[in-house]
Amino acid sequence: YKFLRIDLTQASGPDWNVHLGSTGCTPEGDPTVPATSCSNSHRPEIVLTLDHDTDTIAVDYGSLLADSDLSQNQGGAPGCMSFPGDPDCPEVMNNLGLDYEGAVSGGQVLFGVN
Predict the structure, then answer these.
(1) CA 31, 36, 38, 40 torsion: positive or negative?
(2) CB contact set of 108 (below 8 Å; sequence gap of 6+)
(3) Handedness of CA 79, 82, 87, 91 (dihedral sign)
(4) Rg (CA), the chain
(5) CA nearest to 7, candidates 26, 25, 20
(6) Which of 17, 46, 48, 113 qualifies as a FRET site for 57, CA 20 to 30 Å off?
(7) Percent helix, strand, coil in the chain (nearest 5)?
């Protein structure tokens, strides 16, 4: 399942996409039944403190991709597809607040409060 899908089309440069989903999922028993266990769940926990009467939740796609090289695809499908070993994913996963390939995230930057 994809939990987040953002597709970027650039006027000059390659398309660059972020598809966040669980990987390493194995069905239990019947292979036609969706898996309930995945080795990489890729489900960030986002905690925001806000005043529901005055604040809004902001999504900052620029911050999500700030550390990524959008001028070229590093390998595989364009952008980060969430799979283990995807060379376009370390920076994206870190900015989503997800540990990836042994690197511990410094925290998510995609969502904030305005």
Answers:
(1) positive
(2) 44, 46, 95, 96, 97, 98
(3) positive
(4) 16
(5) 20
(6) 17
(7) 10, 25, 60
